[in-house]
UniProtKB/TrEMBL annotation:
The keyword Coiled coil belongs to this UniProt entry's keyword annotation: no
Gene source species: Podospora aff. communis PSN243
PROSITE patterns tied to this protein: ANK_REP_REGION (PS50297), ANK_REPEAT (PS50088)
Name of the molecule in the record: Ankyrin repeat-containing domain protein
Organism phylogeny: Eukaryota, Fungi, Dikarya, Ascomycota, Pezizomycotina
ANK repeats mapped onto the chain: 7-39, 275-307, 341-373
Length: 692
């Protein structure tokens, strides 16, 4: 009976969960185990979960166990989690003493604290033993009655618990101003330091800022975040608006009350820091002007260094607290201090694209050309962020900006705004770009040629170099570079690097004495034929032969020209006496851009040679399948004695589709006769009619 389950519950657990008292009694009378279940579920835990007090009473009357670690789940914890007050009262009446009692109570208190449920705490309070640990629980809940009960019973405000630490630290971390005032009145020391939290003032500020601190994304911050004090339901104190995260006014106000109590009682604010810095730094990160002012009035040094932020000004900038930034600068904050991760305060404001803070910092003597640890200036940062507002602020600051090669490279990559490069050049008239910078700009496809010309013209000593002409990817850029002086001599390597034939035409026109050789022709033929906006392709090739009429057509030219039928036709007509090798003819004719008529054209120039079998097989191997039949047909016309292997013949036949069979019958006849002739030779004249 006990082994029969329904939805993973035994019958008694199911009856308890449903609140069916009749079936519970029936099952118990039949001998069901009152603690039937496992370490996670029992009949009593199911009754507690669903708030069936009458079922819990019946089970307890039959000796049900409330909690046994490792064997029976904590039903009191379950009831507290679901806030079943009647069941809680009943379980407390039946809870016996001993270690199990303390452990059951602590687990129940932990669940209640997660929900900040003071009413549940009040029900548990009368059963709590008088110990420093349970004083810590009362401080965490913010129960004045509970704290007074423990203090009146003899627990000292100076007693330290291993889990909670000192009572005042607990009250400060949980932001309980009433409890903090009570403990101070009872003699708690406001400057007693804790290894984990520092003094109570630092504990209160860190706890208040914890939701924001947890959003820091640097690797260094990640290690520190894991050590932050846990506080109750951070999300309840955070408002999300337009994607920004801000501490709620209620949370900051509560923190201010705790801080005021501690400061009034003499808490020290000088050079006391933990992971995230001094009290002033954390208050600056929170962003409350009254909070910062109250700490400054107690003698805090605005330029104290320590913790993650290092100074209060960096903390305010990282939190984007413009009002606090202004206040700190008025109180003498150092605007030139360099942080190992952020650089100067001005660099950090620019990196955050915080225009208001940038405006606040500019009148305080900041260096607009200072570099951060990555070597980036505010201008570089503004360009990388594509922030027009930040660029305008820097340009209108009245300070001399130094434009570096890195800035030119970043500006050149603004594909959507190529005019950015021009505006950056205007910021520093003395800037002379290096050759590497110019080469980087030249490679960018969106930069106007006129802009490239103005950039190159700045370095008058350098002029136009061989590298610049080699890496000019567009004809318009080449045309612009050719107008600048000084300019290098034209080389074959420059021609070979060009991507557009009109650019080669311009280069050769620029230097009319440049010798025309086979290598120059090959450079032209190997350059892709795009629809020419400038001189035609035929005109370029014609210009080469007009400069060197004695230029001989070579096999390499024919193979290079096979990419374009027009180029090939032009090359073949330059020399009537040329003998094209059969290998060149076959291979070039089977280029994907060629057509069968080009094969005839090539073979007509190789009329003194007949295509050999090796050349034909190589041609067919490189030929696209849809042109195998037409290619083989042309080759057989020029050499009907070719021996084509049977496997190759079958491969050619396999490319012929049934729907065009009639169209290919005459062509097939030529191929099949060739195949039959080979069979006749191989079998000594004996061919079966069926084979034919």
């Amino acid at each position: 009976m006990e082994n029969i389950g329904y939805l993973h519950l035994t019958p008694l657990q199911t009856a308890a969960a449903c609140g069916n008292l009749k079936f519970v009694r029936l099952l118990l009378a039949a001998g069901a185990n009152v603690d039937d279940g496992n370490p996670f579920r029992t009949p009593l835990s199911e009754a507690s979960l669903h708030g069936h007090a009458h079922i819990a009473r019946e089970l307890l009357s039959h000796g049900a166990t409330i909690y046994r670690p490792g064997r029976v789940p904590n039903s009191l914890k379950v009831a507290c989690c679901r806030r079943k007050l009647e069941v809680i009262d009943m379980l407390l009446e039946h809870l016996s003493g001993g270690d199990h009692l303390l452990r059951a109570m602590d687990e129940a208190l932990g669940v209640a604290l997660q929900h900040d449920d003071e009413e549940v705490f009040f029900r548990l309070l009368p059963r709590l033993p008088i110990t420093p640990r349970h004083l810590g629980w009362a401080c965490a809940f913010g129960s004045k009655v509970g704290v007074e009960r423990f203090l009146d019973a003899g627990v000292s405000v100076s007693d330290r618990d291993a889990a909670f630490g000192y009572p005042l630290h607990t009250a400060s971390t949980r932001l309980r101003p009433v409890i903090a005032q009570l403990l101070v009145n009872r003699g708690a020391k406001v400057d007693r330091a804790s290894k984990r939290y520092g003094n109570p003032l630092l504990a209160a500020l860190t706890s208040c800022a914890a939701p924001l601190l947890r959003r820091l994304r640097s690797k260094r911050a990640a290690k520190l975040i894991s050590r932050l004090p846990t506080s109750h339901d951070d999300s309840a104190f955070v408002s999300y608006a337009a994607g920004d995260v801000e501490l709620s006014a209620a949370r900051v106000s509560t923190c201010l009350k705790v801080v005021s109590i501690l400061l009034t009682s003499g808490s020290c604010v000088k050079k006391i820091d933990k992971d995230f810095g001094t009290p002033l730094q954390i208050a600056s990160f929170i962003g409350s002007v009254p909070l910062v002012e109250s700490i400054l009035e107690r003698g805090a040094d605005v330029n104290d260094i320590g913790g993650y932020f290092e100074t209060a000004l960096f903390a305010a900038l990282e939190g984007r607290r413009n009002a606090v930034v202004r206040l700190l600068l008025e109180r003498g904050a150092n605007a030139e201090y360099s942080h190992p991760e952020f650089g100067t305060p001005f660099c950090l404001a620019c990196a955050n694209n915080d225009l208001e803070s940038v405006q606040v910092l500019l009148p305080h003597g900041v260096d607009p050309n200072a570099t951060d640890p990555r070597g980036e200036t505010p201008l570089t940062i503004a360009l990388k962020l594509e922030s027009r507002g930040l660029q305008s602020l820097l340009a209108g600051s009245g300070k001399q900006l130094r434009v570096r090669d890195e800035d030119m490279i970043v500006a050149a990559r603004f594909y959507r705004r190529p005019d950015i490069l021009g505006s950056v050049l205007k910021l520093d008239e003395k800037m002379i770009p290096s050759e590497e910078t110019i080469l980087t700009v030249i490679r960018e496809p969106a930069i106007p040629p006129k802009m490239i010309s103005s950039l190159v013209a700045r370095n008058r000593q350098l002029g136009v170099t061989e590298k610049m002409l080699k890496f000019a990817a567009r004809t318009a850029v080449v045309q612009a570079l050719l107008q600048i002086r000084p300019i290098c001599k034209l080389t074959l390597e420059i021609l070979e690097f060009q991507r557009e034939r009109p650019a080669i035409h311009l280069l050769l026109e620029h230097e009319p004495d440049f010798p025309i050789t086979e290598a120059v022709v090959l450079a032209v033929l190997r350059t892709p034929c795009h629809p020419p906006p400038m001189p035609t392709m035929g005109g370029l090739l014609q210009m080469l032969w007009s400069r060197n009429p004695g230029l001989q057509v070579t096999r390499a030219m024919i193979e290079a020209a096979s990419k374009s039928p027009k180029d090939l036709e032009f090359i073949l007509h330059q020399n009537d006496t040329v003998l094209v090798s059969q290998e060149a003819a076959c291979i070039a004719a089977n280029h994907p851009f060629s057509a069968p008529k080009l094969t005839r054209m090539l073979l007509s120039h190789a009329k003194m040679l007949k295509p050999r079998q090796e050349a034909v097989l190589l041609a067919l191997a490189r030929c696209p399948s849809e042109r195998m039949m037409s290619t083989l047909e042309v080759l057989l016309e020029y050499n009907s004695e070719l021996e084509i292997p049977g496997a190759t013949t079958l491969a050619v036949l396999g490319t012929v589709r049934s729907r065009i069979w009639n169209e290919w019958q005459k062509r097939l006849d030529v191929v099949l006769r060739n195949w039959a002739r080979q069979r006749l030779k191989s079998e000594g004249g004996l061919i079966m009619s069926s084979s034919t």
